[in-house]
From TrEMBL:
Domain Primosomal DnaI N-terminal: 1-93
Any one Gene Ontology BP term: DNA replication
Domain IstB-like ATP-binding, first and last residues per copy: 109-265
Organism: Levilactobacillus brevis
InterPro entries in the cross-refs: DnaI_N, IstB_ATP-bd, P-loop_NTPase
Pfam families, per database record: DnaI_N, IstB_IS21
Cross-referenced NCBIfam families: PRK08939.1
PANTHER family according to UniProt: CHROMOSOMAL REPLICATION INITIATOR PROTEIN DNAA, PRIMOSOMAL PROTEIN DNAI
Protein name: Primosomal protein DnaI
GO molecular function, one term: ATP binding
């Protein structure tokens, strides 16, 4: 193997090179990463690579210098890397560690699709939830679900119906489960149901009902937050909620719920009575059968954790 230092000396002593260029390239050929790369790949490289790839080596060293100074580089978020290309040296731009981290974070975020949910759900973690023993049963049930689902995502898994008063952390727990599933590579859709119902009504005019409905019907894991918080029209109950749940039951897709009502209350005080005031116990019963098939009720107790 030819000695790099000697080759360089020869290169640099060539008469036709002017001083400026010589100084510039002396620094480039002296760069530890350039030397390392050259030594590691010499066998694959053309004999005259140092002259023919001089511009690329210069680009590599100067872009790295800019990066080290915190300046803007040729491609923001990317850093130069030396590669062998056709027996010569070329520069490839690869995402920096920071960029890779951001990209991973983005992919993670994309796994939690939320419809009309507060932004703060991003921060929810099971770890933080752990600190509270009041709601241990709900937490254990959530952890059991995650274990079972992740072990065999194609099988049927009964999810949870979290009931409990305002502010006990039902939404927080759902979000923490969704974030954990995302970290493990699984997608979840979280929907604030009362807001979704309004969106659906508006979608009628724009012919967008089927599409919006489909997104929830087919979500890998669906979490219906705050069911029962607003009075439901017969249309929302039967043609929106009913249709979503029927599909998910048939396809055995995991579906969570959270509500200020217990299951019994939801059936008797909420689903039975349509906004028109009709009492429809059979329709309520049918809907509850689907909910019970999909989820098991866990009551959460504890203090209201909302900032007062
Ligand atoms: P619910 O949906 O039952 O009405 P939330 O999930 O909205 O209650 O929780 C109420 C508030 O308390 C929210 O601001 C939430 O972020 C916070 N919170 C709930 N549980 C926890 C927890 N374990 N750790 C930290 N904050 C929590
Ligand atoms: Mg809530």
């Amino acid at each position: 193997m030819e000695d790099l230092g000697k080759t360089m000396q020869q290169l640099m002593s060539q008469q036709h090179l002017n001083d400026n260029y010589r100084q510039l390239m002396a620094k480039v050929y002296d760069d530890p990463l350039v030397r390392q790369f050259y030594e590691a790949h010499q066998a694959e490289l053309a004999d005259d690579v140092l002259t023919r790839s001089a511009a690329k080596l210069y680009e590599f060293v100067s872009e790295r210098e800019k990066l080290a100074k915190g300046g803007a580089t040729f491609a923001t978020g990317y850093e130069p890397q030396l590669v062998v290309s056709n027996h010569l040296i070329d520069v490839a731009y690869v995402p920096t560690a920071e960029t890779q981290e951001k990209q991973a974070e983005q992919r993670l975020r994309q796994r939690v699709k939320s419809i009309a949910m507060p932004k703060s759900i991003r921060e929810a973690t099971l770890k933080a939830f752990d600190q509270d023993s009041d709601r241990a049963e709900a937490l254990m049930a959530a952890l059991d679900f995650i274990d079972a689902y992740e072990a065999s995502p194609k099988r049927r898994h009964q999810a949870l119906y979290l009931s409990g008063s305002f502010g006990v952390g039902k939404t927080y727990l759902l979000a923490a489960v969704a974030n954990q599933l995302a970290a493990d590579g699984f997608s979840t859709t979280l929907v604030h149901f009362p807001s979704f119902a309004v969106e659906m009504k508006n979608a009628i005019a724009q012919n967008g009902v089927a599409e919006k409905l489909d997104a929830l019907k087919k979500a890998k894991v669906l979490m219906i937050d705050d069911i029962g918080a607003d009075a439901m029209s017969a249309w929302v109950r039967d043609d929106v909620l009913g249709v979503i749940l029927e599909y998910r039951m048939q396809e055995e897709l995991p579906t969570f719920f959270s509500s200020n009502f217990s299951m019994a209350q939801l059936e008797n005080e909420h689903l039975r009575i349509s906004t028109r005031g009709d009492d429809e116990p059979l329709k309520a019963q049918r809907l509850m059968q689907r909910i019970r098939f999909l989820a098991r009720e866990v009551t959460m107790v504890g203090v209201n954790r909302r900032p007062q």
